[in-house]
C-alpha cells in the first residue's frame, strides 16, 4: 500500500497518533509499533501509537514514505504520505 494517513488531535500533538485503519498494511503497523483498537460505538478499528506525529513521520521517511500534503480539519492534524513502488516487471 503506497499511501498512509497519519493524524492526531491538536491538543494531543505529543501523542497518541492515529496511523491506520483496519485495512492498513499489517507489516507497516508492526514496524510503527501500532496497536489496533476499536472505540466503543464504532464499527471500525484504527491503529494507534503512543509516539508523537513527528516521530511517526521520521520512521516513515526512513522506509521511503514522503509527505504529500498536510492539513488541519477542525481540531485534527492530518498528513498524507506516499511511497513510490517498483513498477511491475522490473
Automatic annotation (TrEMBL):
Coiled coil, from the record: none
Gene3D superfamilies: GTP cyclohydrolase I feedback regulatory protein GFRP
Keywords associated with the record: Cytoplasm, Membrane, Nucleus
One example GO MF annotation: GTP cyclohydrolase binding
Compartments, record wording: Cytoplasm, Cytosol; Nucleus membrane
Keyword Transmembrane annotated: no
Entry-linked Pfam families: GFRP
One GO BP annotation of this record: negative regulation of biosynthetic process
GO cellular component terms listed in the entry, alphabetical order: cytosol; nuclear membrane
Record InterPro entries: GFRP_sf, GTP_CycHdrlase_I_reg
Family listed: Belongs to the GFRP family.
Protein name per UniProt: GTP cyclohydrolase 1 feedback regulatory protein
Organism for this UniProt entry: Gasterosteus aculeatus aculeatus
